[in-house]
Amino acid sequence: MVLAHLRALVVLSVGLLMWTGSARAAATNWVGDSQAVVRLITATDNIAADSTLEAGLEFRFAKGWHGYWRTPGDAGIPPTVDWSASENISGAETSWPAPHRLVIDELQNSVYENDVVLPVKLHLKQAHTSARVKASIEYAACSEICVPLEAELALPLPTGAGGPSAESVLIDSARKSVPGSTEAAGIDVIRTRYAGTASEPTLVVDLQSKVEAFVRPDLFVEGAGNGIPPAPKVELQDAGKTARLTVRLAALPPPDRPLTLTLVDENRGAEFKGPTGTTTGEHSSAFFAALLSAVLGGLILNLMPCVLPVLSIKLFAFTRQTGGGLRDVRLGSAATASGIMITFLLLAASLVGLKWSGATLGWGIQFQQPWFLAGMAVLTVLFAASFFEWLPIGLPSSIATIASKRASGPMLEAFLAGVFATLLATPCSAPFVGTAVGFALARGPSEIFVIFLCLGIGMALPYWMAALFPGCVRWLPRPGPWMLVVRKFLGILMLGTGVWLIFVLWSIAGAWMAAITTVLLACLLGYRASISAPVKGQIAAPASRSSGWITAALAVVPIVVSLSAVGPVSQAAAGQEWQVFNLDALAGLIADGNTVLVDVTATWCLTCKVNDLRVLENAEVRSRLKQSHVIRMRADWSRPDPHIANYLHRFARYGIPLDVVYGPKLPQGEALPELLTTNVLLNAIDRASIHDYDRKSADSKSR
């Protein structure tokens, strides 16, 4: 009886030992000292039919101590592992969880602290065959000093069913902390490029988050000389959804070896490649090209439809000044040029402030704000009243005493004409303007101010020429009674501009806001007309102080009321022929063999309307766009929309119009010039499409 009990106890003990032994077969003992220890773990207890085995090296560092990532930085050594003594193991692939940055006396280090698992994928020579995993590890544990450590770890694994071990959770968790693709992290890499010079290069990375906003993004750069560069300068925009990371590099990589970039932001990470090639040399040739583009773009702005009403006003002013001396021409031209340049500098200051605040940047985005539209409508009505001689414009009396009272009115009117022309020019994206503005807004405050100053110089150039050579206006007609008719015509032209601004206000803030603004401006015009009308053949008396206060109130109230306007952020319906812009649908449409035209427009963009009339409504273009494999998408940027703003930034654009053609041959899209032509658009569609199209045959049929 006793013998039977002893036999049962032995069997139970052996079974218990076998059970506990198999449970612990997925991990070795800890090896190390008081600074750091390491062990080998596997995700399964046995070798099954799989050809690979998930394993991990788990490091545990004491408080105040740390180990190193694969690229340790300016100090330290990364862990190295030798698997050659293993049995039935043909190779190993080690993955590296995201590190964090540790800076000690300006030395950059990428480290691990506390507990970290390096996932390892072991390749088996034969499945269903027992293996002996042996790892010889060399690593360092550092605090105020660095201690080199070694460990010999061995783990036998028998054959079996291959179920998950107790340590599999640790390995799975470590896998999730390894930076993967940008798509898996919900991040779009908009652009990577080199900037600066060959001796002082920088790396600029533009990112957009498709999920949560960026918090504290860090970028680990590998391949730019020894160690790792310092932490990037981070600029967040669009409520943190867009980030620009600028990193100072010690050296550029060879042209055929792009940098490896690892982005770490809170609990997500992504790994991707940097650009190839050399620096853009923006401090020399590229910067000079941007300055030249700004001057030429500013000059061309004088011919854009946005500023034609003000250009007509200035020509009228030149004509009026031909009856006076050359001094009047010089002063009037210089005043207009000064108004243009000062306004451009104020726009630059506003954009710098918006950039620092993280807001969306763009050329003409102020036309998305109801208060700005109402203010511009008020300004056009005041100019119209001035041309109807209902509202004299002059300097304040305190300033007028310094200058000539006779010239104070024309001087202020000329200065305001320059201001007004610049503000009206902002919804126009003339040739060269988009390039210059995109270059400026992608850089720092100094570049923004310099580029916008050059835009102002370009737009003011005709007026500076008139100021320097006033005799050139002598060819204009001499003043006479005909100018009264022209003056009234220009007043009507300004009222037409006001009507257009109210229409844009209607599309952005709704019919009620547009109606209130219209009524108040009509009251303003009616009031000024009534107090300026002759009474019984007598010229109206000079305006009293009370009339000035009433005029000011009628001018200010529309702007104040518009501050409460809140327009919807969603896009308006695109129409029957155009689909509403959907960036997520592009990849699927292109994969199906379609050609896609994306048109970014707005109700306030007059250049967009010109493109519509001249190109998109062209019979040949319409025939091509109606093909079954051609899809038209329209993005309406009349109101603020961060998704559309981010889409513009993909192509380094900060203003509209923007037209992009996609297709199987152009999956990344090709951005077209701001001013479209029929040939440019059709040729881009030909390059993107996989479908043959005989333009000559189609043209003959259309005739």
Report on this structure.
This protein is of the alpha+beta class and 703 residues long. The chain has 4 domains: 24-176, Thiol:disulfide interchange protein DsbD, N-terminal domain (Immunoglobulin-like, Sandwich); 187-273, Immunoglobulin-like; 285-533 and 546-562, no CATH class; 579-702, Glutaredoxin, CATH 3.40.30. 42% of the residues lie in helices and 22% in strands. Strand 1 and strand 2 form a beta hairpin. Helix 3 crosses helix 10. It starts with a helix and ends with a helix. Residues 1-24 and 395-407 have low confidence and may be disordered.
Topology, element by element:
Elements: H1 2-23, E1 31-32, E2 36-42, E3 52-61, E4 66-73, E5 80-82, E6 89-94, E7 100-104, E8 107-113, E9 115-124, E10 131-142, E11 146-157, H2 168-176, E12 187-196, E13 201-209, E14 218-222, E15 233-237, E16 242-248, E17 260-265, E18 268-273, H3 285-301, H4 308-321, H5 326-357, H6 370-387, H7 397-400, H8 405-425, H9 433-441, H10 445-468, H11 482-509, H12 511-532, H13 545-562, E19 579-580, H14 583-591, E20 595-601, H15 606-616, H16 619-625, E21 630-636, H17 642-650, E22 658-663, E23 666-671, H18 678-688, H19 695-702
Parallel strand pairs: 19-21, 20-21
Antiparallel strand pairs: 1-2, 2-3, 3-9, 4-8, 5-10, 6-9, 7-8, 10-11, 12-13, 13-16, 14-17, 15-16, 17-18, 20-22, 22-23
Number of domains: 4
Percentage of residues in strands: 15-25%
Distance between the termini: 113 Å
Q: What's the helix count?
A: 19
Name the strands of the widest sheet in spatial order: 1-2-3-9-6
Look at the structure and give the mean pLDDT.
80
The whole-angstrom Rg is 35 Å
